[in-house]
Amino acid sequence: MIDVPLFDVEAPAAVVAAGPRPPLTVIALDLSLTCTGVAGVGWTDRIRTKLRGDERLAQLEEEIVSFIRSADLVAMEGPSFGHSGPRFHEDLAGLRVLVRRYCHRHQLPYALIPPSNLKQYTAGRGNATKGEVRSAIADRYGIHTEGPGRYDMADAYGALAAAMDWLGQPLAAVPERNAKALAGCQWPDREMVAQGVAA
Description:
Layout: H1 13-18, E1 26-30, E2 35-40, E3 43-48, H2 53-68, E4 73-77, H3 89-105, E5 110-113, H4 115-123, H5 130-141, H6 150-166, H7 176-179, H8 190-198
Parallel strand pairs: 1-4, 4-5
Antiparallel strand pairs: 1-2, 2-3
C-alpha cells in the first residue's frame, strides 16, 4: 500500500515567492505647536515642546518624522478654519506644510481629515466636544488617553481609525452616520498606498 499525503506539504512556488502580504502601517497625527498627538494601531503618544518660533518647528518636524518615516500612510487632522483660537496660525499652518512636504518628497501618501469629519466619525456629530471624542475613542477602541495631550492623542486615534476604515481594515464597527464622514476627507490614491506596502 502506498501512503498518499492528504495535504501538499510544499506550497506552490508562486505563493512562496510572494509570501504573506505585510500589514499596512498607518500613523495618524493631530498637529499642534505645543502638544502633537500621534497614534498607531493600539497605541498613542504625544510630542511636547516649550520652544518657540523656528526652533520649535525644527524640533516638531524632527520628532514627527521619527514616527512617520516608515509608514505606508499618514493621516492628519486638517486645519480648523473656523477656530478663532491660537495666536500662532502661521506657525501651525507652517507645521502642517512641513509634514506634507516631507510626505511628498518621500512619496509617502497622506490623508487630511477635517476636524468636523473626525468628530462625526468618532463621536457621531460634527460638533462633538473634545471630551466626547475622547470618551468615544475609549469606549469603541479601548484606548484611554490620559494626562497632558489626552485630547490630542484621542483626536490622532480618531484619524487613525478613520484611515483604517477607508483602507477596508476598520478597527471596530461604527454606525452608518459616523462612516459617512469618510466621504468628506482628502484621501490619497489607494493604489499608491498599496504600492508602498509591496515595495
